[in-house]
Amino acid sequence: MPPLRTIWFACISLSYSIxxxxxxxxxxxxxxxxxxxxxxxxxxxxxxxxxxxxTIMCLLIKHNYKVGMVGIHLALLMPxxxxxxxxxxxxxLYQESTSANALTSQATLLGMTSxxxxxxxxxxxxxxxxxxxxxxxxxxQEKTTAIGQ
Length: 149
Hints:
The protein is mainly alpha-helical. The protein has one domain (4-147). 72% of the residues lie in helices and 0% in strands. The protein is built from five helices and no strands. The longest helix is centred in the middle third of the chain and has 36 residues, at 65-100. It is elongated, with a radius of gyration of 19 Å. The two termini are 25 Å apart.
């Protein structure tokens, strides 16, 4: 069983994945094209799947130390990457909607999700798992490489 802080970290990451998945499910409903906006689901949906994969990887820290550490560190970066990508998409949607005098519901949703991503990143930084000793099954070279000392 992974350490308690790793489990808390994974719960936050899983919640963030659910938020991104929910955003992906709501996006087609907010389109003015009569339900033809399924292309808007691609970005938040792919970010949700990637975040879920990284969550699973960080829970594998007791079985495979290197995979777990990669999962934790990449899961820490996902909210920042998501913030950048979702903000760019929100800005593009906002520019399109202001030129066509249309509603900006999708841009607003993506903007709020971007702001929430920053909050998730700060929370993950505060609760991230402490550096652990490598498992005893590794030899000294693998421990040095895995821990980075």
